[in-house]
């Protein structure tokens, strides 16, 4: 089964509202990364949070990590129509080999103008 | 411009006809990977390479081959494609084990 699972699978909000997506995982991680994918395009890295960090910000993005609950959240504030995309979390396991970046199945965010 | 390129971007082929999808990165990254993306399944790793001449299987390697003869290139080879290999394929690279990955634009493959 997949290491990372996003919740919800789909989210539809109005422009200007905040969007929150959650990611849960099963085993100890080195870091957790969030990626964005516009329809049919490549993934673009948004933010990386290490296992010893609890919160990171990047522009309108805020990521939290709770290693005790094995969960992370991505908050997009003041959403725009251009934020419409799929968002994926990916976890890099603590016991490292290059293969162990595991992606969830994503949250499809739709921001309505 | 730092980037990962893939070719072709779109390919329609028939069962059994060998094909190669090329991947190249200009960032001198050591690590390269191939993923396939299918609806509801997210991205699944096919193969990865930690350096030249070093490759290893990911989660779904069956039916695929790779090679890493040069640091910048990591082609994906389908010796005898089958319809269940119809998917969207992504190549990715990164410098260090814990670094973020840079993805190519994707190759949409249809096997009839």
Structural class of the helices, strands and pairings of chain B? mainly beta
**What share of the residues of chain A lie within helices?**
under 10%
Q: What gross morphology of chain B would you assign?
A: globular
Spans of chain A of at least 5 consecutive residues whose pLDDT stays below 50 are none
Order of helical and strand elements of chain A: EEEEEEEEEEE
Residues in helix, % of chain B: under 10%
Q: How many beta-strand segments of chain B?
A: 11
Strand content of chain B: over 45%
Task: Specify which chain pair forms the largest interface.
Answer: A-B, 25 and 30 residues
Assembly status: heterodimer
Low-confidence segments of chain B, ≥5 residues, pLDDT <50?
none
Number of helices in the DSSP assignment of chain A: 0
Q: Gap between N and C termini of chain B, in Å?
A: 36 Å
């Amino acid at each position: 089964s997949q290491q990372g699972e996003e919740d919800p699978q789909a989210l539809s909000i109005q422009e200007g509202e905040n969007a929150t997506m959650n990611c849960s995982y099963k085993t100890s991680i080195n870091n957790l990364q969030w990626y964005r994918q516009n329809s049919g395009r490549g993934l673009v890295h948004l933010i990386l949070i290490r296992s010893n960090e609890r919160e990171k910000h990047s522009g309108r993005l805020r990521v939290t990590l709770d290693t005790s609950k094995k969960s992370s959240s991505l908050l997009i504030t003041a959403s725009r129509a251009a934020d419409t995309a799929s968002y994926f979390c990916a976890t890099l396991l603590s016991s490292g080999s290059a293969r162990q970046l595991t992606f969830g199945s994503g949250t499809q965010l739709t921001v309505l103008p | 411009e730092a980037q990962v390129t893939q070719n072709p971007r779109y390919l329609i082929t028939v069962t059994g006809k060998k094909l190669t999808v090329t991947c190249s990165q200009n960032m001198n990254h050591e690590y390269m990977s191939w993923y396939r993306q299918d609806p509801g399944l997210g991205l699944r790793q096919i193969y990865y390479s930690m350096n030249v001449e070093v490759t290893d299987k990911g989660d779904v390697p069956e039916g695929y081959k790779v090679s890493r003869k040069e640091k910048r290139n990591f082609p994906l080879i389908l010796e005898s494609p089958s319809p269940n290999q119809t998917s969207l394929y992504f190549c990715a690279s990164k410098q260090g084990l814990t670094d973020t990955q840079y993805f190519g634009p994707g190759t949409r493959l249809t096997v009839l």
